[in-house]
What we know:
Helix content is 25%, strand content 29%.
Amino acid sequence: xxxxxxxxxxxxxxQGVHAELEPxxxxxxxxxxxxxxxxxxxxxxxxxxxxxxxxxAMFVLPAYDRVDLSRAQALLGCALIRRATEDEFSxxxxxxEVGAMxxxxxxxxxPVYLDAALARRPHLVFxxxxxxxxxRMITEDYLRLVKPVVADFVxxxxxxxxxxxxxxxxx
Length: 171
């Protein structure tokens, strides 16, 4: 377990909330996480860190979607917004592997914005601070604890269609 996962689990425990830990093979993207966990991408939350007028903001959205920076800019009321670089945010999440930050920006003093469609899902699955551990929790609990700004700021991507399993070669 990572110190990040320890932090999240301590926070959830203190709030009386359960989240299911799901160890998995190493993944680096939310779509890959959805694949290895056999979960639809609409339930897998990914984190996008933005640099908005000199401040960081955390956007949480479904695995196959992307942030519409024009909508995000209007939402934040900022003059300039762009994807933050790893150098700009990695020090803010020192107990997490870069790129595996959980959607708990409030634990790191980063405001959280949650996609409206994701807010309507019964549960969320997300990276838990590493590229090989995820958490699954009830969305209602997430909303109550994190208190994100819920808004529509994404361009929805197509959910991939399941493909037939690869044939098993004869030995």
